[in-house]
Design a protein that fits this description.
The chain is an alpha+beta fold. The chain is 13% helix and 31% strand. The chain folds into 3 domains: 3-32; 52-167 and 186-225, SH3 type barrels; 246-271 and 306-447, Bromo adjacent homology (BAH) domain (SH3 type barrels, Roll), CATH 2.30.30. The chain has helices spanning 3-7, 18-38, 226-241, 384-389, 438-447, and strands spanning 59-61, 67-69, 72-75, 77-80, 83-86, 90-93, 103-113, 118-127, 141-152, 156-164, 193-201, 206-208, 242-245, 248-251, 255-258, 310-319, 326-334, 353-364, 368-376, 394-402, 407-409. A hairpin with a 2-residue loop joins strand 4 and strand 5.
Length: 448
Amino acid sequence: MLLCEWFCQPKASPYRCPNMAVQDADENEEEDGLMDSQNFKPRPKRVTTPSKKKKRSDVEWVGDPITIEEDRAYFSKVLINKEEISQGDCVLVYPDDPSKPVFIAKIVYMWQQEDGEQMFHAQWFLYGSETVLGESSDPLEVFQVDECQDTFLASISCKCEVIRKQPSSDWFMIGGSPDFNSDKVIEVDDGKTFFYQFWYQEALARFEDPPVTARPKGVPRYRFCDCCIRLDEKHLMETHGSCFWKNVEYKTGDSVYLLPESISFNIKPKPPPKKIAAKKDLDETEYPEAYRKKTDYVKGSNLECPEPFRIAKIVSITKRKGNEGIKLKVKKYYRPENTHKGITASYQADLNLLYYSDEEAVVDFASVQGKCTVAYADDLFESVESYSQGGPHRFYFREAYKSSTKSFEDPPSSARNTSLKGKGKAKGKGKGKAKGKVAEEEKHKEAG
């Protein structure tokens, strides 16, 4: 036991050692911080209930609508409790919970619906206390955030002012200045004036410069919301990058098994060779066992086996809004039997051999049956035999197949996997001969 701790025992002294008080305070802060991180809950989004009972203010349009689209008439000005508010102004909005402070929003655009409801699209600001700064923040400073919502004009309390505080040209010198309030933008707190400097990324608790988003083509100026554009881009990045199924991640560039009926090939498969039927008028005395040959069954035949899975490479992953499922855009791989050579091409070919193709298709993610690996033979560090035996679900290709010309070609450089690029040990083994002439040779054989 430390000497300080011994002197600070309650029974030994009615006073508390200041050193121990500081130590206990530090320990309590660490415990509180640990509990706060474990019990952290995301801040609830700003929500205004779409109920007519929530309306508190008188609303009256000023002037004629800017334009009318379907069931909406867009306006640029409105009177809220006889106070004129224009598109682009900032306002205070009544929250659903009266115990909470009023919300601060920017009016992006306003409209009246066909049923008479008067609405506006709001971009919300956050108080500093709602960020990671907590109560240590400036009560007059607010932060931009990527949250927007359609809400009622009648929920607006009044107009307010939110000033953009630009960083000083000598901001790097202000840190040690005795007068740290020299760049103060609000002299008197009137309850309706605020300022902002940064955009707040809540997921990472990070403050950044406010983003600038250009208006896309086709989006009119009177209903353009840069926040909606960023949220849509974020949504696309999340859904197009990858997805999970049965705790397995599927991302662009991966090769997958697909149900046979999910994609088709441009080449109509050749029928298997027909067997010569046995003669029925055989002499039973000379051929007493002829009845045993009446069936077409051949021992070891795979003609009645179901088709193998299709193999494809994921190009992109998309998910549209609503209840529609995930869609995959894929590039097809041909098996030898899927080419113009037909089923006979697979009799002596390697079971793991594929042909690259530029043909694309869009399939439902529900048709995915698992993942596999497809590599370019010349990019392997080992022979194709060692590669195939090194693990399950491994395939390779040496050539690309072009169904329009029924020819085999060198695969494009984009088909090669640079992460597997090796010393070319597999190069030259079974390399295609006379590329682009295979179809002509086949035609001559058929003609002969």
